[in-house]
């Protein structure tokens, strides 16, 4: 078995100290959504010759969205409501993985 996950529902969107790989706390530099995607793709590539099950659950778009998503997502939205823009950007980031 293999596990890569975050501890607690309040995981930071950037550089989270709450990530665990097989029970060991590990550094998690960067944007959490991208980190989860990259780890999943790496696992798929390394195990493509055997059956497996993956449960990938992104932490976004949970509120409050205290931290913004990367600029490439934030720049797409300008509703006049920064909280709505953060929410839409987080959804877009999850859609793209």
TrEMBL record:
<keyword id="KW-0378">Hydrolase</keyword>
<protein>
    <submittedName>
        <fullName>Sulfatase-like hydrolase/transferase</fullName>
    </submittedName>
</protein>
<dbReference type="GO" id="GO:0004065">
    <property type="term" value="F:arylsulfatase activity"/>
</dbReference>
<comment type="similarity">
    <text>Belongs to the sulfatase family.</text>
</comment>
<feature type="domain" description="Sulfatase N-terminal">
    <location>
        <begin position="20"/>
        <end position="95"/>
    </location>
</feature>
<dbReference type="InterPro" id="IPR017850">
    <property type="entry name" value="Alkaline_phosphatase_core_sf"/>
</dbReference>
<dbReference type="Pfam" id="PF00884">
    <property type="entry name" value="Sulfatase"/>
</dbReference>
<dbReference type="InterPro" id="IPR000917">
    <property type="entry name" value="Sulfatase_N"/>
</dbReference>
<dbReference type="InterPro" id="IPR050738">
    <property type="entry name" value="Sulfatase"/>
</dbReference>
